[in-house]
Design a protein that fits this description.
By secondary structure, this protein is an all-alpha fold. It contains one helix and no strands.
Length: about 70
């Protein structure tokens, strides 16, 4: 009977530690996902804002010319 109680007590402690470890991993993954979503959101927002400005102004601007090669600079 004592050995059974020891086994149950030992395995219960391991399960608690595993649950905490998994919770920390889930929190870290969620933080990375939030950072990526906000990063891409800002990038996409800036792209659409630039396109909107080009359409609104209807002026020949260097970054609005569809024939100009992409330089990667904004």
């Amino acid at each position: 009977m004592k050995s059974r109680i020891r086994r149950v007590a030992t395995s219960a402690g391991d399960r608690g530690a595993s649950a905490v470890e998994y919770a920390l991993m889930v929190a870290a993954i969620a933080a990375v996902i939030v950072a990526v979503v906000f990063g891409f959101g800002t990038l996409i927002s800036n792209t659409f804002q630039g396109t909107s400005n080009c359409i609104e102004n209807r002026q020949s601007m260097p970054n609005c010319d569809p024939q100009a090669p992409a330089t990667g600079q904004h």
